[in-house]
Design goal:
21 strands, 320 residues, eight-stranded antiparallel sheet, Jelly Rolls, mainly beta
């Protein structure tokens, strides 16, 4: 399996399974807008026709007979700083748009489509050439936080997927006085190092919700040495961990035998959070952690290899 590199290794802030939503489009005559943010590669079955023509796994508009262009509006599942955008025209060969651009805006709360029309939109991908049946990668600079993006295609056609990769920047003030999952991707945590991600991304293990199947967790290749696999999580903020949840759901024959968790506040001195502990396959394990110092990073070691569906490190943000 080829590992993502550059900005594509960062989470897709718009992904449907991470809470993204295509909340509006000016046209979706041939194929629905919701396909833009589906997980996985687009599929295609030739000579598969519905009432509107060939069925496409993507968003496709009618042929325009008047001036203008088509657009789709996406609410990011996780607000953040955008580092790069992928516009994928997979399988659209005679009906792809020749150009596209992407705009972004930050609007707090729960704005309606009408309210978003007056937002301060910033162009993060200028009008750019597209090819048919191809992935187009566009790096994005800047440190602004965004909650919504708007995909524009000129003048019409079909786009299979839109990926908006970046770093999550949540509003953690909502949790003042409350506990939270310090390892949650949606709270701003991120896997910054990993020994192996042969089968699936380690960031899956800190994604929202429960893993529906094995591929939605983190799984390593089989080790043929005396070592063990591990990952390092940059926590949502400096915090005190009080409960570790280690979930091996769906990992029936490839769960790790044991797990241990350590933490650090300075990146140099590591202290134990959870000692090396036996795990069972296909099980959600919960372990109380008492009297731990504040940590900014956590390292999860699995022994010797295998996979985890989810990792949760519940606790409280450190004061100050």
């Amino acid at each position: 399996m080829t590992e993502p590199t550059g900005f594509t290794a960062l989470p897709d802030l718009a992904l449907r399974t991470l809470g993204g939503s295509v909340i509006a489009a000016n046209d979706e005559s041939f194929a629905e807008r919701e396909s833009l943010i589906r997980p996985g590669r687009p599929g295609f079955m030739p000579h598969t026709f519905g009432a509107k023509g060939q069925v496409y796994d993507g968003w496709e508009t009618r042929r325009r007979r008047e001036p203008g262009h088509d657009w789709a509006l996406v609410r990011l599942g996780m607000p953040g700083v955008v580092r790069g955008v992928v516009i994928d025209t997979a399988w659209f060969k005679g009906n792809y748009p020749p150009y596209a651009s992407v705009e972004a805006a930050e609007v707090e709360g729960y704005p309606t489509v009408a309210e978003l029309e007056t937002a301060d939109w910033v162009e993060i991908v200028p009008r750019s050439d597209l090819k048919g049946d191809a992935e187009h990668l566009f790096a994005v600079s800047g440190e602004r936080r965004y909650t919504h993006v708007r995909l524009n295609m000129f003048p019409d056609g079909g786009i299979a997927r839109l990926r908006v990769h970046g770093e999550v920047r949540p509003d953690l003030s909502l949790y003042e006085g409350l506990g939270l999952d310090l390892a949650a991707l949606e709270n701003g945590a991120l896997v910054t190092a990993c020994s192996n991600e042969f089968y699936s991304s380690p960031n899956n293990a800190i994604s929202p919700g429960l893993a529906r199947h094995q591929a939605e967790g983190w799984e390593t290749a089989r080790r043929r040495d005396d070592g063990n696999d591990w990952l390092v999580i940059r926590l949502a903020g400096a915090g005190v961990v009080s409960l570790a949840e280690i979930d091996t759901t769906n990992l029936v024959f490839n769960a790790p035998a044991e797990v241990s968790v350590t933490g650090t506040a300075d990146g140099t001195t590591w202290f134990p959070l959870l000692p090396r502990t036996r795990l069972l396959p296909d099980t959600r394990h919960r372990f109380r952690i008492r009297d731990a110092p504040a940590a900014t990073y956590a390292r999860v070691d699995i022994h010797p290899d295998g996979g985890l569906a989810r990792i949760r490190l519940h606790g409280f943000l450190a004061e100050g």
